[in-house]
């Protein structure tokens, strides 16, 4: 334990420590699988997800009565293959989820560092904006923005980034407040470094840990929000397959017993969010110096 | 005689509360001279203004502090009239500082080489490779074994004494003329302290560095310094050559300080202590700030603050006893 703790301070040592102490296998596997599926979606999908045969509407999954090997997970109300749509939907979720988290992360971390390090009116302005942002319910705010800019994948990323950067700004600012009192920052001041150099070379590397942990935890939130936006019709525009969109389409068939149209995309969303949260929790404990001391 | 390296004239630095109602005179009417290669010991109790004086020289005071008057002439130019950009070029390059806790002065995420090379790259615009080469030489200068491998290691892989020497190497990396050391040994144990002090002494000789050594340890002053300035409540109450002050202290406060050091072979059972408490810096007593605790206080001390009187050549004391 002792050796892994001291080694975990160096970058290469940190990865070694991560390897040693049991990466949570299940969430890692789920996320890795989803990323791979997203990457190779075109190859994996057995049918065109956007074109259906109306004669094959509402086919149940293959193992049920009336199902066929042609559509393993059945078809929807337009006769489109559910499996293919799920596979390409994974691409939407992964791409939107990761890029939105990164956009929000860069924006929030940058502003958090500026607020924390510069203090004064910069801090006041940024933090008051953050307070205002946090006071608005995230989903309502996102719907509002989406209604203004209109639906597209690119716009969703921008909206999610604009809604969620405040979470980072809050946490990072707090970290920076304590880091800037550390002696190595003061030594850099005494050594004649400019504020920009100090923020870039001494503050930023010390908050990256927190930002990464936060990003992993935010991944789940962002994916759910994306699905919700798509479900409400202000997210990914049809006929593109997105899990939230599939839920919205499928709910009409729920009463008629076409459960696979809602349960399957719902399960996909749940799996991905669960995996992201489990991984985030584990990373938080792993990289938190306070918890690491225990 | 040419101009001294550093000359401070009636410098006053005050802390002002947000509404301007409370004023703490942390540094008041301070005058100092320091020649190249000379070491000045700045002694005094906590809160006597030693660190504020040092930060005033570097112009790195906290926002509440104001330099209300005075002059700080370094290498012939007044530091108080310099722009922020000019001050940045002076900090680290012409005047370096070692902080109170050098153990915490290294960034845990960067290699030693990066950190020693940083001021060289900032101030001299040297490329990474050349700066690292110079960093290796610096580590050798502070007696770190196998500097090439040490350069690529991280702070947590070093012992406390080594980290401290590395901080010393960073301080001298750009060839400063003046080094301010703010209680650099308080966090070290005694044997390492002694090593570090002799290292600083050697570096000083090798580079003709002037040094301001802030401490409350009179033993270190006796060993390290050429001249001493004793601070009390923001004023320099006595200054002069080390030998002179230790042998014939002129100010009652200095005398009391020296008497409160235990000596080997001393028959005395109880250690002499200074009566009373250090004054509240926001509400200093009228007259001489030391008079409520002074065994030799006279009526005059209650009424007027004494100016510095010359005791001997280069030795002055702010005490009415010497008014004659």
List the SSEs and their pairings.
The complex is a heterodimer of chains A (294) and B (324).
Chain A lengths: L1 H6 L3 H10 L4 H15 L1 H4 L37 H37 L1 H16 L2 H12 L3 H27 L3 H8 L4 H37 L11 H12 L5 H28 L1 H4 L2
Helix pairs in contact in A: 3-5, 3-12, 5-6, 5-8, 5-10, 6-8, 7-8, 8-10, 9-10, 10-11, 10-12, 11-12
Chain B lengths: L5 E11 L6 E12 L4 E5 L6 H9 L6 E10 L2 E2 L5 H7 L4 E4 L13 H13 L3 H14 L5 H5 L8 H13 L5 E5 L7 H18 L2 E6 L2 H7 L2 E6 L2 E7 H6 L4 H8 L39 H5 L5 E4 L2 E3 L7
Parallel strand pairs in B: 3-8, 3-9, 6-7, 7-8
Antiparallel strand pairs in B: 1-2, 1-4, 4-5, 9-10, 10-12, 11-12
Protein architecture, described:
The complex is a heterodimer of chains A (about 290) and B (about 325). Chain A is mainly alpha-helical. Chain A has a single domain, classed as Orthogonal Bundle (MetI-like fold). Chain A has 13 helices and no strands. Chain A is elongated and about 75 Å long. The model of chain A is unreliable at about 1-10 (pLDDT under 50). Chain B is of the alpha/beta class. In chain B, the strands form two sheets. In chain B, strands 6-7-8-3-9-10-12-11 form an eight-stranded mixed β-sheet, sandwiched between helices. A four-stranded antiparallel β-sheet of chain B has the order 2-1-4-5, with helices on one face. The longest helix of chain B is centred in the middle third of the chain and has 18 residues, at about 190-205. The mean pLDDT of chain B is about 85. The interface between A and B is medium-sized, with 21 and 29 residues.
Unreliable sequence segments of chain B = none
Most extensive chain-chain interface: A-B, 21 and 29 residues
Identify the CATH architecture of chain B: 3-Layer(aba) Sandwich
As for the number of domains of chain B, it is 1
Number of domains of chain A: 1
Helix content of chain A: over 70%
Task: Please tally the β strands of chain A and state the result.
Answer: 0
**Average pLDDT score of chain B:** 85
Q: What is the ordering of alpha helices and beta strands of chain A? A: HHHHHHHHHHHHH
Radius of gyration of chain A: 23 Å
Low-confidence stretches of chain A: 1-9
